[in-house]
């Protein structure tokens, strides 16, 4: 079983940033409003993710490290419409097989907190507030070959920050802080009370603008305008079947950067050819030279029309009707770029 977990770890964990992604996913699934990341040596020596979410009951702590232990989906039908970031129940087991792990947690409504040592399985009482901290030390200690592929601490840190940035851009209702070697390196304050599920209110759009500015810099806001598009077809609830919102723009030549393109599907950061191609084609007539577009696009659609269980890292998706999604994103961005700037 240890071997199987290590093989699974090979698919899920490439570097410290992969661990960060999984742990932050879990914190968000637990309903956290504040997530604090602490790193040593670019995450190789320590990754600690602390949240104020619902916590884990004492008796359920040992299950968290078990393979295919997920509390998030109960049946195949749930898999058709996954609402949480995680659902495979293999991340913690995989990470525990390649690092020294511990979970500290206090479940909501309870007064006692416990620490579970992932190596020994020992469980003991500790003191802490509501929520969970997962600590991952000495990543790849047992697989020196993998450890050798890691880059400098500065590079690994940059990847860890990028991983949190991707989460942060979708969750202005959650505060994030990143510490490295005892120094605060990034902090994005919570600026909305409720999740940004459907960004329909002005308050939600304003909070998203605030978060985009905090994370990507005020230039991103200055260079872009709001995207707010929905399809004419309605779903079974009478709502538009597809919505695309966010911001898109064209930067000055001097400020053009290749890393200011973000796509989300139902709140999940994805890297997807259909989406990037659609955005690209909307820019065809407006971009000249080697200027790069800037955008953060959020697609909301019926979860049964998109499969997120394609790849262990869940960064790829498969659309049931990719033409429909392509057209939606293309139109959304084209309309935005064609509109006079406010
Ligand atoms: P998955 O997220 O796919 O369910 P994981 O291996 O990431 O699987 O986590 C296993 C289980 O541990 C989760 O289903 C959840 O019940 C619990 N868990 C992990 N991290 C947290 C957390 N930060 N807060 C509350 N529960 C957690
Ligand atoms: Mg998970």
TrEMBL record:
Residues 212-338 form the DNA mismatch repair protein S5 domain. Keywords: DNA damage, DNA repair, Endonuclease, Hydrolase, Nuclease. Transmembrane segments: none annotated. GO terms for molecular function: endonuclease activity. It comes from the Bacteria. Belongs to the DNA mismatch repair MutL/HexB family. This protein is involved in the repair of mismatches in DNA. It is required for dam-dependent methyl-directed DNA mismatch repair. May act as a 'molecular matchmaker', a protein that promotes the formation of a stable complex between two or more DNA-binding proteins in an ATP-dependent manner without itself being part of a final effector complex. This is DNA mismatch repair protein MutL. It comes from Rhodoferax mekongensis. The lineage of its organism: Bacteria, Pseudomonadati, Pseudomonadota, Betaproteobacteria, Burkholderiales. The gene is mutL. The chain holds residues 18 to 359 of 681 of the full protein.
